[in-house]
UniProtKB/TrEMBL annotation:
Keyword Hydrolase tagged: yes
EC assignment: 3.6.3.28
Span list, region Disordered: 246-267
CDD domains, alphabetized: ABC_PhnC_transporter
GO cellular component terms attached to this protein's record: plasma membrane
GO molecular function per UniProt: ABC-type phosphonate transporter activity; ATP binding; ATP hydrolysis activity
Protein name per the record: Phosphonate ABC transporter ATP-binding protein
Keywords recorded for this protein, A-Z: ATP-binding, Cell membrane, Hydrolase, Membrane, Nucleotide-binding, Translocase, Transport
Gene3D superfamilies to which the protein is assigned, alphabetical: P-loop containing nucleotide triphosphate hydrolases
Chain intervals with Polar residues compositional bias: 255-267
Cellular location(s): Cell inner membrane
Domain (ABC transporter): residue spans on this chain: 4-249
Organism classification: Bacteria, Pseudomonadati, Pseudomonadota, Gammaproteobacteria, Oceanospirillales
Bilayer topology term: Peripheral membrane protein
Amino acid sequence: MNAITITELHKYYATLHVLRGLNLSVTQGECVILLGANGCGKSTLMRCLNGLAPHDQGSIHILGEPLTRLSPAKLRRLRQKIGVVFQQFNLVQNVSVFQNVLYGALGQQRLGLLTSLSCFASNELRERAMAALERVGLAHKAQADCRALSGGQQQRVAIARTLMQDAEIIIADEPVASLDPKAGREIMDLLLDVVTERGMTVLCTLHQLELAQQYGDRIVGMKAGRIVLDVPRQQVAMDDMQHLYQGETRVDQPPLSTTPRLTPATH
C-alpha cells in the first residue's frame, strides 16, 4: 500500500505555476530523499502534503485518504499520523526539553494542551516522553531549557517529539541544513534508525548530495516544478544529482520545454 500518492498535482501562487503536474508515490515503510535547487517547488510540495497549503489541481492521498475531501475532524486525525521535522526545529525555546516532547502528544489528548503540560500529564505520558528522550540520547537533558542546547541536540528533541506523536509518516524538510557536517550525519543516522525500527514512511528533502548517496531507498529529483529523477539510491549517479542544480531550476523561469536527460520517473 502507498503511504503517499500524488497525482497530476498543480499549485499556483497568483500567476506563478509552482507545481506542474507532479506525480509521486511512496510506499509504506519506504524512505525517499527529495532533491532539488532552491525555488524548484520542494517546499511547496511539502506544505501541500502536510496541509499547510491547498493545491489547485490533481490529488493527494495520505494512507489511502484523499487530503482535500476529508471533514475537519478526519483531517485532524490524519494530521496526527504525519510527523514533521523542520530545518529550524520549531521548539518552544523557553520551556524544558521534557515539556517540548510532551507537546508531541497534543493531538492525541481529549483535553488538549492541559494534559500535555508536565504538571498535569499522566504517568503514562511522562514515561513515554522519557522513553522518547532516552531513544534520542537526551534523557539527561530532560529538565534543561531548549535554548541551552546545541543545534544537533535541538533536532534530537524534535525527533523525540515526533516519536511521542506516534506518527506513521515523517516529512523532514531540510532537517540537517542548519547543522555542521558531523551533527548532520548523526541526525540522519538517528532519524533513519528510528523510522526503520518503527516501520515509518519518510519523505526527506536534502541539499547535501553526499548525504543523499548514503541514506534512503530512493532518490527523487525536482526541477522547475516537476519530478525529473526517480531511481533507487544504489543506482543514482552524482552527475544526475548535480544536473538538478544546473540550467532551468526555478518555477519562476519558463517551463521545461524538452525532455530532461535524467532518468524519468517510474513510480
